[in-house]
Amino acid sequence: MDRRSGGRSGGPRRRAREIALQALFQWEAAGNPLETGLEWAATEYDPGEEVLAFAAELARGVTRHRLDIDGLIARYARDWDLDRLARVDRNILRLGIYELLYAGRPDVPPPVAINEAVELAKRYSSEDAARFVNGILGQLARDRGLAEGDAGAGDPAEAQPAGPPVPAPGAEGGSTEP
């Protein structure tokens, strides 16, 4: 396994997003300081300064805007309690929403931010989670005028993403209980 990439495919920004996701997961699951997760990734993967700097920017940005981001997740994941989402899915959504609304990076257009979150969900969660992430981020982008499509046109119920994936029994961070 290539320690520079952590065995992952994709370019440096995708590796940075993976590292940010891992740091956020450790921060939420184990209560570790965010910086501890970033330091672990630097040691484990030796991603290089640029990759680690982008990962840190993303992870710190998510934590700085977490309450607003979580409010948006709760709003767009209708009829689904935020705490019931699998931890990995919740943090993928947080990263995607941060990149869409808060990062202020013109070099990451909305379709790229959405696609990168979907790819994280495919790799670290499931195809169902990827569709769920795509539905939430796509609708948010349309509602904010960040993506093509008629935001607010048609039946709002049809525009809402399907319910979140139900984690497999024993899966980390989620619950199948109503």
UniProtKB/TrEMBL annotation:
Region of interest called Disordered, as start-end residue ranges on this chain: 147-178
SUPFAM superfamilies per the UniProt record, alphabetical: NusB-like (SSF48013)
Compositionally biased residues, Low complexity: 148-161
Domain spans labelled NusB/RsmB/TIM44: 14-142
Keyword set includes RNA-binding: yes
InterPro entries with a match to the protein in the record: NusB-like_sf (IPR035926), NusB_fam (IPR011605), NusB_RsmB_TIM44 (IPR006027)
Gene3D superfamilies according to UniProt: NusB-like (1.10.940.10)
Keywords attached to this entry: RNA-binding, Transcription, Transcription antitermination, Transcription regulation
Pfam families for this protein: NusB
NCBIfam families per the UniProt record, alphabetical: nusB
Function: Involved in transcription antitermination. Required for transcription of ribosomal RNA (rRNA) genes. Binds specifically to the boxA antiterminator sequence of the ribosomal RNA (rrn) operons.
Stated family: Belongs to the NusB family.
Protein name: Transcription antitermination protein NusB
Organism: Thermaerobacter composti
Taxonomic lineage: Bacteria, Bacillati, Bacillota, Clostridia, Eubacteriales
Gene: nusB
